[in-house]
What we know:
Layout: E1 2-4, H1 5-15, E2 20-23, H2 30-36, E3 42-45, H3 49-63, E4 67-71, H4 75-78, H5 81-89, E5 94-100, H6 123-127, E6 133-136, H7 143-154, E7 162-167, H8 168-172, E8 174-176, H9 196-208, E9 212-216, H10 218-222, H11 226-236, E10 239-242, E11 257-260, H12 268-275, E12 279-283, E13 304-309, E14 323-326, H13 329-342, H14 353-367, H15 377-389, E15 395-398, H16 401-407, E16 415-418, H17 428-436, E17 443-448, H18 449-455, H19 459-464, E18 469-475, H20 480-489, H21 504-511, E19 514-518, E20 536-542
Parallel strand pairs: 2-3, 2-4, 4-5, 5-7, 6-7, 9-10, 9-12, 10-11, 12-13, 13-14, 15-16, 15-17, 17-18, 18-20, 19-20
Antiparallel strand pairs: 1-8
Helix pairs in contact: 1-2, 3-5, 3-17, 9-13, 11-13, 12-14
Amino acid sequence: MQIPVSELIVRYMERLGIECIFGIPGSHILPVYDALYDSPIRTVLAKHEQGAAFMAGGHARVTGGVGACITTAGPGATNLVTAIASAYADHLPVLAVTGEAPTYIFGKGGLQESSGEGGAIDQVALFAGITRYHKLVERTDYLATVLNQAAKFLLSKTPGPVVLSIPYNIQKELVDDTILDDIAFGRNDGTYVIADAYIARSVELLREARRPLIIAGYGCLRSGAQQALRNISERLNIAVTSSLKAKGAVDERSALALGSLGVTSGGHALRYLEREADLVLVLGASFNERTSYVWDKHLLAGKKLIQIDNSAQQLEKVFRADLAVQAELGVYLKALDAALQAQNVAAKAPVDVAAFIAASQKQSDDAGQTIFDEKFDQVRAFYGWLERQFPDGLVMFDDNIVFAQNFYRVSHQDRFYPNTGISSLGHAIPAAIGAGCATRQPLFAVIGDGGFHMCAMEIMTAVNYKIPLNVVLFNNNTMGLIRKNQHQHYRDRFIDCDFSNPDFALLAKSFGIRHARVESEQDLGKLAALDFHHDINLIEVMIDQDAYPNYSSRR
């Protein structure tokens, strides 16, 4: 049957499993919007295209499926750039469908044209470095190939964003709906087999080690390997630390959890690594700037290293390994767990991680090296309150990651999404809204006042669609990281970091949402009046402008 391309695109999205699409209409994309009118796909009108793409990314995170956003040509598409780049850095399957001026006016200076012809913006070039696949569809005769390629990248084991730009006249052309029958919509996870020699060598190194340590990276979460990781840790009495992005790979409230490793952490895992570990098993962690302590070449000195990663590019990128294996983490850990059981590898001497952390904290306190002093007591208390208030778990999108990294212990029931990738301010609120279209768990967006001003308007998107959301706003009237660096490295020569804030209570009132202000631990009692499961709340946590975390990013 002949149908318009616009309808075919909508059916294509349905077959990809897309349930919700975020965006802003414009004249060049209205044919697709019109086709969405009769589709079960839910449309959500965002306030800015960047917010729409962040929403698509948040939706993809919580569902494990494809997130989607839709915009018009020109500025509608260019406004996507930062959020698409973020999805690219985080390997998120986000499909962006954009309109384009009609092909018959290419190069003539059409309104919002971005064809790259006649001096027009070249949208293909613009997205080339931040997508897994991008295509300006100028004809229908290769449409099946384009859609098949897009599906391949969106549904792959290592996905990324795809941008399809479709000119207005092409959207209206008729094509045969059997095109969709030629597209592979199934996930191609592949068959992964780990060579027996790699498993045997891993077992041998673990057997020989006196005090091994596991560094769990994001690969453990992406591969769903948490249970196998827990089995190995508990069977052999191996303590576990994680990269920031992998918080929750093991329950951080469990007996063998050291918390996260990295420059912005309290240092307990680092001390354990330096003083106790003789073998380090690195699972899907890339040793980025944070985790490697700004690529400290002495970090693993005198220790044996096993590194497992699904990307060959990450292996030995920073440190030489005694065993480096490219493997899917879920397959590797299950095979290793089975081999450890079959060979009856003895557990290591019991380790009292809680006692080690307590002693490490005392050392930090005595040396004046505590990362947070008493000026942050209300923040510490707030995260402790969150742990007690939500024992059944919550979903947290966190732009202000340094606090949660140190104060919040992610349980196996929580879902924690730090703003890593390109670390764009203004991410948490729209990403959480996207997630809110797919989860019933209590939902938190944690953000500083600087980032809040970049995305505050998206709160009205949550209001318009009645998406329950709790926004935690840290208010210190400054760009905190910039002010900290200017204090530490630029002799308090503060420039363009401080600003004035609105009255957030009045702002919340204008949005029609609830507001609470926390200035001290005693104020946490005010939060009992809020409904965290069904309402939209703005929780303002006050911080001294001259309170600085005691770490250095060396910038």
